[in-house]
Structure to design on (189 residues):
């Protein structure tokens, strides 16, 4: 099982940057449009170049803020995009952590992303041929229910027990089976 803490959403970061930039331009426009030398002691006219400069600075600040706090980018990301991103990272983790490549092609990875608050279950080739996607979706929903109810360990343990029972039924082991993969939680940033 793999527990992921966070990731980046470039489009979300860009949109946060645009939103902050527009707020900066609007704020400066409202604050300085009526400025006169007599009342403020300065004369400032917001032409195109100053507005573009304000926009660029606002964009940079907004995008940097969304990079530092990835949850800001989620406001501009669809649920489908988040699920797709989590599933892609799960498949990469499946490969990188060596879950793929067991002798019988029966490795399973339960990938939890705390940032997106979603889960992806990835199985090796023999498992995906024997078990339907809807079954993996049920395991995913079990983990998500535990997380959303404030009982993450219970949700994870229930899903792991269900996966074990399912694998014992669909992919019974042989007398010379050895545990090729570690059965432990890995946390990555």
């Amino acid at each position: 099982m793999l527990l992921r803490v966070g990731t980046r959403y470039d489009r979300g970061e860009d949109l946060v940057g645009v939103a902050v930039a527009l707020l900066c331009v609007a704020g400066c426009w409202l604050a300085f449009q009526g400025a006169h030398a007599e009342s403020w002691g300065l004369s400032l006219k917001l032409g195109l170049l100053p507005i573009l400069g304000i926009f660029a600075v606002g964009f940079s600040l907004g995008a940097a803020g969304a990079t530092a706090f990835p949850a800001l980018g989620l406001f501009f990301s669809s649920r489908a995009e988040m699920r797709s991103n989590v599933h892609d990272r799960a498949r990469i983790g499946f490969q990188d952590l060596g879950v793929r490549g067991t002798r019988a092609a029966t490795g399973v990875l339960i990938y939890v992303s705390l940032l997106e608050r979603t889960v992806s279950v990835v199985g090796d080739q023999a498992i995906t041929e024997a078990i339907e996607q809807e079954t993996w979706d049920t395991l995913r929903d079990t983990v998500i229910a535990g997380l959303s109810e404030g009982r993450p360990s219970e949700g994870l343990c229930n899903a792991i027990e269900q996966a074990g029972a399912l694998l014992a039924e669909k992919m019974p082991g042989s007398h010379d089976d050895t545990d090729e993969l570690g059965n432990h939680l890995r946390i990555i940033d």
